[in-house]
Amino acid sequence: MLDRETVEKVALLARLKLSDEELATMTDQLGKIVGYIDQLSELDTDNVEPMAHAVELSNVFKSDEARPSLDREAALSNAPKKDDECYRVPAVLGE
Amino acid sequence: MSIEFETIIGLEVHVQLATESKLFCRCSTKFGSPPNTQTCPVCTGSPGALPVMNRHAFDLSLKTAVALNCEIPKFTKWDRKQYYYPDLPKGYQISQFDLPMSQHGYLEISDSKDRFETKKVGITRAHLEEDAGKSMHDEAAGKADSRIDLNRTGTPLLEIVSEPDMRSPLEARAYLDELKLLLTYINVSDCNMQEGSLRVDANVNLHLQTDDGKVATPIVEVKNMNSFRAVERALAYEVDRQLAHWKKTGEKIGDVPKQTRGWDDSAEVTKAQRSKEESSDYRYFPDPDLVPITTTDEQVAKVRDSLCELPAALRSRLVKEQSITPYDAGVIVNQGRAVVDYFLEVAEGCGDGKQASNWVQRDVLKNLKENEQTIDQFGMSATSLAALVKSVKAGDLDNSRAGEVFEYMLANGKDVVASMAALGIEKVDDSALDDLCRELLAANPKVVADVQGGNQKAIGALIGQAKKKNPNVSPNDIRGKCLAMIAEMS
Amino acid sequence: MSLVHKSATALLSEMQSGSVSSTEVCTAFLDQIDAHDEKIGAFLRVDRESVLAKAADVDSRRSAGGALGLLAGLPVAVKDLLCTKGQPTTCASKMLEEFVPTYDATVIEKLDSADAIVIGKTNMDEFAMGGSTENSALGQTKNPWDTSRVPGGSSGGAAACVAAKMAPLSLGSDTGGSIRQPASFCGVTGLKPTYGRVSRYGLVAFASSLDQIGPLASSVEDTALLLQAIAGSDERDATCAPNEVPEYTATVAKPLEGLKLGIVKEHFAEGLDSEVGDCVTAAIDVYKALGASVVDIELPHSKYGIATYYIIAPSEASGNLARYDGAHYGYRTSDTSPVEGEGPLVTMYRRSRSEALGPEVKRRIMLGTYALSAGYYDAYYVKALKVRRLIRQDYDAAFEKVDFLVGPVSPTAAFGIGELSDDPLSMYLGDLYTVTTNLAGVAGLSVPCGFTKSGLPVGLQLQARPFDEERLLRAGHMYQSATDWHTKTPTV
To answer: For residue C250, is it within any domain?
Structure first.
């Protein structure tokens, strides 16, 4: 069920590029892990509410006040590629 | 071959909420700042930074949802919509997936010219989400890079999704006009399309009546429309294109994947857009960094009670209480609440809605437009205008000179009495009018003869003369009096 | 006793009394790092000059009689996934090797306002994914008790530096055992606070609903001291609880009366190393001797903990790590050659991520992406969230009966470097006793409770109700008052 083709598809979704060797290893290892994980299916959870948070908080807000932003130099300081104003990335297609 | 068909349109509208700061951080939402000067670790997705929800953004969306007659669930949450794009620095957009903050509402639309019947357009859902940044292709210097500005990233948006309830481009336009009007009335957005505060995507297809029964054409999503007029035109184009395409290919819904087309405003056509690299699989899941929001019935009731009178209700009230036509009511309400209030003050002050409507539309709005002013900047109070209208109605001021008085009042900030005095306008009494007419007839035997010969229009020659002698006389009075005197002569 | 062998609490009072300066304390630890860290590899960066400058500043403020913070003058080691403004924060990844945050994590601000001194940034498994620090792209940390063995992970450097007396206090993070397990492997004390007890703002996220920052130290008393400085609500973290912060330091030495302990039966089942089991059993006997009553407790769903954890954590991670795509920060590939049928942007993304992320990180991203993808979401992700609730309910039921749950931290003592690195599933199974603490969001403490025959430390785990750290620390301190395991130091 977790075949090489699926693993390749997932790799594209995750924006990873796996070599043939990595693909083989990944398919094998993920297969084993997913096989282990599948034991959850033996549990009946029909009437159980999913638990997405470890702490039951709600309605946590901030007020709507604007505060100073980072100056541009700081904002762009970690950009792998930039010019005076913007981040630079390879051409966005479809625009 | 003519074929019967029905046009099916649904609209997705993204509205920027009128907040000071972004949805999850405290960067300003101000438009037009230099690139990348309104960002912080949170909105640029810097490792370790965390979002915290802006209360005002939620309050504004709640207000909108109530105004759109939506159901407000007691529990709503945040989800991550995951996709890679350089204007989305976290690799996901914080949005709402399966539990939006509102759903199942409607917006009533009508046409003052009765080109379609008044109807309720269903609102499928309205949910909050953060905006993405802006990517610009750099054509200068021949560089193959895109440039990314993240100022906009994290700006609060309300996505309002309609049911496919509109049956013509005109209805779509009416929906957008009404929605925009509603949103500006309740002050949740400035709806400025040029600044991207309101964006529209349209889904459209046709239901054709063929010999083999009903057939639907593939649904097309139209984007890149930068005005409501463009939406109307793009949809009209799309209706023709889909019909022609169907006639040529017979392609129906399900035969091809959903297509996205962009509207080219100068060429006035829609063009197929390149689809994303792989079919979208957004892998939504609840955002663990944000906690759910709960809303009580009391909260919703409070919002409902505090809501101002909405445009539709206001229009019917003007028609009913001020006896103006639905068309006129529409024109006034479309100008915004401040103009409506001005109009109401004039109407109540002069006791004549119809006249107040005429004056506001003809003189006030024209003047505002010419001077690019808003009603708050207008130089004449509603009370002053009401007094002017009242004087005309009472016959103290002749209609022919009312415009002159209006201009004078506006230019000099004087009330109607002072302005009339300054212009030397006073009511001409009956004996003065008799004397003047007698004098005119005596001096113009040819006019008298012409009238007696059946040419009543000849009397017009006397009006100018009368005005010269006394600028206060009313042309109607001169005409009536002179004709009566000539009739008595024979 | 040399300065580095003294407890943080003792050093603090000596500095307060003026018998020793912060400069002397920091110099002693820096010298210890110079002498031993080449061998241990606990630190990724130490900036001697800036540490001493800060120490001198504290000293001069102290002599001027100014008010000083809770940890004034004490060096604290910080795991390299806590953002430090202007100082690299690498997460031990090639991806962030050059990354310099523009802001301080809330805990760093809190250390700062407590006048603590960050002595250096410690090594870890890349992005906190792993239990051995073998997944660091920037070097292998070794266990001070046996340098052929791993220090545990992911907070391996954080635990090793305390064990080797290179720092008196250390901050780590725990997503599925990443503080407790290395504390256990290195023979130090480590606390995973309740989820929401400490702000996560500035903690580079692995799995947001499980991650929690916590202290490591040589004793429970010192652990309480560091927790005191970092706990509390934060308007920048919506998941950080508003609960009041008790006076941990004031009460830690007060013994608890009528202590009720629950032995998690499932944690003594097959798979537990017998030497580890013996140490833990002996530790429970110590509690009995201290007057505790002990009952067996079942956590029936705990056997599903690993499966649940390895769906939820990678799913969240796949989202949290999507930002490392070479566009806005971090590593970008230098290879711009085109790929047939792929746009240049996608090619850049895929190459940058593949070149700069390590195998374990990729494995978890893949697993999480798969679990969230269309068609699998309900079967894996939603199912795991439901089982998570069942696990939490087990804990709630247990805490109706007992104050704390006791058991081992890890099924084995520290394993050899390279021993498990080809077998991810076996590595994952080592987290069996710790992941449920994070899934349930409760607190967990690891205290040293003995050694194996080959001289490797063994840890005892105590788990407590949410926000019950105050009593949990007292229970830990009771044990350390009756034993001396925590005072043993390795000969480096």
So the answer is: yes
